[in-house]
Design goal:
The chain is of the alpha+beta class and 109 residues long. Helices cover 46% and strands 14% of the residues. It starts with 7 loop residues before the first helix and ends in a 12-residue tail after the last helix.
């Protein structure tokens, strides 16, 4: 799912900015917290009421962090994504992560 001309680091930076604009609650686990027993071992997202929380684990590959953000945006903020401009490579990436390689981003409420 790597788009030509877009590095994983660039994609992650764009997705982080987009997630902030979309109102997702972002938490990036510190290396110290990640080392604690019982700490999450991979990045994930979930909904609690109306709030969508995204936890990024520093040991995860950049590509997995980006996919976690893309899934959270596509699933929980699809209307927001449709209302703003996204670079074509980023829109295609989100569509692919959501399992819709062609057409608009699909997602839930």
């Amino acid at each position: 799912m790597t788009e030509p001309g877009m590095r994983d680091e660039d994609r992650l930076a764009l997705l982080l900015e987009l997630a902030k604009r979309a109102g997702l609650e972002l938490r990036i686990l510190s290396a110290h917290a990640a080392a604690e027993e019982g700490a999450p071992r991979q990045s994930s997202a979930g909904r609690l009421g109306e709030r969508v929380w995204v936890l990024l684990v520093p040991d995860d590959p950049t590509s997995h962090q980006a996919a976690t953000l893309a899934q959270a945006l596509g699933r929980h903020r699809a209307a927001f994504l449709e209302s703003c401009f996204l670079p074509p490579a980023l829109r295609t990436y989100i569509d692919e992560v959501m399992g819709a390689p062609r057409g608009p981003i699909r997602g839930g409420p």
